[in-house]
């Protein structure tokens, strides 16, 4: 009896702090990026101009449009849930935002390259970094004159928070669509500078105090209905999973350069975790082994219409547009969770969930010694 009680007490005291507090070293998330992680940034800057202002965006999780390019959550939302944090508010949302557990600077259409005449991307990575600096300075000034406030992050969380960057895809698209470059030309012209700029952004965040910075690479665009439909492909341009070889090759070329840039930056920034996240590999495996993850469709869009890939540029998800001479209002498939792709470009809620689970699993981090779960008792997602 006595020893059993002792044992139980021992087990309880060992487990209690973990159960009671759900220990997590990351008090906040600061995110930078494009539509893949935009939780309302673009909407609050330029309202009523983009697809996710309309149904059926948001149908699976929020039950209404939530300004996210998804039927529900994005990967950054699942990360917040896993870390036990609320969904992070967009920096540009003036009413109802709570920033104590982070802020989201991502905006749809954002590119690494700054706004120029050849394409339209007003809230580029540079703008987002500047917004972050202003935000941080305002928070620190407020804390020093009023003490900490319950809707602002603590000064410390700028150091201990987790920083995530996911950007680059639009730089490809703008080069393909506006500059009319081929994947090969894109490789030769814009890509080397791109990876350097992202490395520079990491350096800037470090200078601002960030010590845990995760940079996601660009996913396999060549498997996406938009890239498969909008651009012409030679019959020899398809791999065994129906993805475009040349468009994926351009992305992989860039990702290799990003890897190299981050390993250079890592050497120059001591005492920090500068982490490359190879989401390309995770997402490509969705297309290679869909049934392993419960997906039934691969290169077809859930919300879309027409053609081999269920995608028509002039009649995109939620819009009314011409398809074979008839006007069609484009709705959602009945089972988004069995699709990888929601709207021809972006992932479904379910694909974002599985992606985030795989990321947290730790196998796709470089360096491989980095781990989130050893520093945070994550919540199931
Ligand atoms: C294409 O999208 C429509 C919604 O417009 C959906 O009902 C249909 O199931 C999708 N088709 C395929 C082949 O995925």
From TrEMBL:
Q: Which residues form a coiled coil?
A: none
Domain of life, source organism: Eukaryota
**For this UniProt entry, which residues form the secretion signal?**
1-22
Keyword vocabulary terms for this entry: Glycoprotein, Hydrolase, Signal
What is a single Pfam family found in this protein's UniProt entry?
Answer: Lipase_GDSL
Which terms in the Gene Ontology molecular function aspect does this entry carry? hydrolase activity, acting on ester bonds
* Membership in a protein family: Belongs to the 'GDSL' lipolytic enzyme family.
Protein name listed in UniProt: Uncharacterized protein
User: In which organism is this protein found?
Assistant: Picea sitchensis (Sitka spruce)
